[in-house]
Design brief:
- The chain is of the alpha/beta class and 343 residues long.
- The chain folds into two domains: 5-118, NAD(P)-binding Rossmann-like Domain (Rossmann fold, 3-Layer(aba) Sandwich); 119-270 and 298-327, Dihydrodipicolinate Reductase, domain 2 (2-Layer Sandwich), CATH 3.30.360.10.
- The chain has helices spanning 15-24, 37-44, 52-57, 68-80, 95-108, 122-132, 165-169, 172-182, 277-291, 299-318, 326-329; strands spanning 5-9, 28-32, 47-48, 61-64, 84-88, 112-115, 139-149, 185-192, 205-213, 218-226, 233-240, 243-248, 322-323.
- Helix 1 crosses helix 9, helix 4 (68-80) runs parallel beside helix 5 (95-108) and helix 8 crosses helix 10.
Length: 343
């Protein structure tokens, strides 16, 4: 695909790592946002659209980097205009909304990609390759830890009606990793340090989610939004019938470059030394369109992650484990992979 025209919707903290990726890929980018579009466009040499209709009229692909509850409405508007869509995680705020977005994209013959960027972090990709190759036998117990400085109190991140709190926003990365590493999930139990309905959550919040996989494996996820200045850190450990695999972002020399990640409030990982996984992710999605193939992350992957997050939120509300049938959740009409825009 050449001369790709991208519409970037949103100009918040995550927009800059997407902007870095699009600039690296040589895309012609137009920004639309209620706030900050001019500043972002001036920083990167992008154009600015005065409204959503103007943006959609002049692009081939839309990249949505806004708050969670706006994902589905914006994706639907782009799809109905015939534009391919990349959407930051989660794909939508609810399973029903995610299913509608996927079905509408299939009906319109356009491509839809949820931005589950952790699948493009080299360490996690290598971990999954080792699991798939049978290096540790059958996975039995998985543990994922993710933590760092909390988003500012009072922002949409802490408001479950807009962002979903720590489980749906931050921990959905590792919900997706658990699905990627060990397959379908049939039971979800979650606890959280602050009440799930508290829209004025404190800066510090910790949640734990326990997942029972269909194959009998168990995953334990811990997510932390910590005090100002807490270093960003992730780890993963997978124990199987024949061994253990582990990774930890702190002591290793395998770092990932996320330019401009230091801009803002410290919510994103710090910049480091190698290629950005955000750029790798966008490159894969653009190639998937041009080559009429699947990307590493599919629309159905995004739906499944939303379903597990929704079950975790229900567990937080009720205090009970939630049974889950992902085969039923993901049952959508079949369709061939639609053709991409011209090369």
């Amino acid at each position: 695909m050449t001369s790709l025209r991208v519409g970037l919707i949103g100009a918040g903290g995550i927009s800059r790592v997407h902007a870095d990726g699009w600039r690296a890929l040589g895309a012609a980018v137009t920004v639309y946002s209620h706030e900050g579009a001019g500043l972002l466009a001036a920083e990167y040499g992008f154009a600015v659209a005065t409204d959503l209709d103007a943006l959609l009229a002049g692009v081939d692909l839309v990249d949505i980097v806004t708050s969670t509850t706006s994902h589905a409405p914006l994706a639907l508007a782009a799809i109905r205009a015939g534009r391919h869509v990349i959407c930051e995680k989660p794909l939508a705020g609810t399973v029903d909304d995610a299913r509608e977005v996927i079905h509408t994209a299939r009906e319109a013959g356009v491509r839809l990609f949820p931005a589950h960027v952790v699948r493009y972090f080299p360490d996690y990709a290598a971990l999954r390759d080792q699991v798939q190759a049978g290096r540790i036998g059958e996975p039995a117990v998985l543990r994922f830890v993710r933590g760092g400085e909390a988003p500012r109190t009072g922002t949409w991140f802490h408001d479950e009606s807009r962002g979903g709190g720590i489980v749906r926003d931050q921990m959905i990365h590792d919900l997706d990793q658990a699905l990627w590493m060990a397959g379908d999930i049939v039971r979800v139990y979650a606890t959280q340090s602050a009440p799930a309905a508290d829209t004025d959550a404190p800066d510090a919040a910790t949640a734990h989610v326990v997942l029972t996989h269909a194959n009998g494996a168990l995953s334990h996820l811990q997510g932390t939004w910590g005090a100002r200045g807490l270093p960003f850190r992730t780890s993963a450990d997978i124990a199987g019938s024949a061994g253990i695999l582990s990774l930890d972002s702190a002591p290793t020399a395998s770092w990932v470059d996320i330019p401009s990640a230091h801009v803002g409030d410290g919510y994103l990982p710090p910049p480091t030394l190698t290629e950005s996984p955000y750029t790798a992710q966008l490159r894969d999605y653009v190639a998937a369109i041009a080559e009429d193939r699947e990307a590493r992350v599919t629309a159905e992957d995004g739906l499944r992650a939303v379903a597990v997050a929704e079950a975790a939120m229900e567990s937080l509300r009720t205090g009970r484990p939630i049974e889950l049938d992902l085969s039923s959740v993901a049952a959508l009409p079949t369709a061939a992979v639609p053709a991409g825009v011209g090369a």
